[in-house]
Design goal:
Length: 244
């Protein structure tokens, strides 16, 4: 059984969500399933502490934060809610390559009353926009091959004014079993059923992320384990880098 494989190396198979011709109704069904998974696994909880700390260090101005490959926008909407409860000045925006995901994100933000703008961005081809204090991405890095991930991390470090945050899966047999079982408990989406375990098999181990961060110029990034079978990479620009 695949459950018993050691998963020593990344095993990347095409994910259904990444197919450009995926039917929009099927795509939205999958996005709703992922929203439940993100809620249970606490993607916003993982990302929020360093953002809250940074916002409190700069109380007189509004932080600008961009969520890259924002998917259905549910993570950034939940983070906006956190900022409002904490009474912090933070401006959130999201970007994705998928028109279906962008439309769904806008609807999510409108239902929440969140002033979050979403726009089209192909992170593999487009220049990353500047002017954001924080560039973050959640559960996207494992979709990329090693060189694409390296390029994205390097460009995020160059474009962000102050901080880079990457929340993603850690490759492990435990994570694989949780993804297989959890996806079937939380959604009826066939896309999620297929993609969830494939995502874990394609995910990076911590030592692989550390090596990529070093090569990308994020050598002093803090990489920590997060529940469930996740990691958070947090990199802050030095004062000299911010002023250069």
């Amino acid at each position: 059984m695949f459950f018993l494989k050691p998963l020593r190396c990344r095993e990347r198979k095409p994910e259904l969500m990444d197919q450009p011709r995926l039917d929009s109704a099927v795509h939205v069904h999958a996005l709703r399933g992922l929203e439940r998974i993100n809620w249970l696994s606490g993607s916003d909880r993982i990302l929020w502490p360093p953002i809250e700390t940074l916002a409190r260090e700069h109380p007189k101005r509004s932080l600008r934060i961009l969520d890259i490959a924002a998917g259905g926008g549910d993570v950034v909407v939940r983070m906006w809610r956190r900022s409002r409860r904490a009474n912090l000045k933070i401006e959130f925006q999201g970007a994705d390559v998928s028109p279906t995901a962008l439309e769904h994100s806008c609807m999510n933000a409108q239902r929440a009353g969140a002033p979050i703008g979403f726009f089209t961005l192909d992170v593999l081809r487009d220049r990353l926009p500047e002017g954001y204090d924080v560039l973050m991405t959640s559960l996207f890095l494992h979709h990329l091959d090693d060189e694409q991930a390296l390029s994205l991390m390097r460009r995020m470090g160059e474009a962000a004014r102050q901080m880079v945050l990457i929340n993603d899966l850690r490759r492990s047999r435990t994570g694989y079993v949780l993804a297989w079982a959890g996806s079937r408990l939380l959604t009826s989406s066939h896309v999620v059923h297929v993609d969830a375990p494939r995502s874990v098999a394609a995910a990076f181990a911590l030592h692989e992320i550390r090596a990529l961060a070093d090569r990308a110029g994020l050598a002093d990034a803090r990489i920590t384990r997060r529940w469930p079978c996740r990691f958070l990479l947090c990199w802050k620009k030095s004062r000299a880098e911010r002023q250069s």
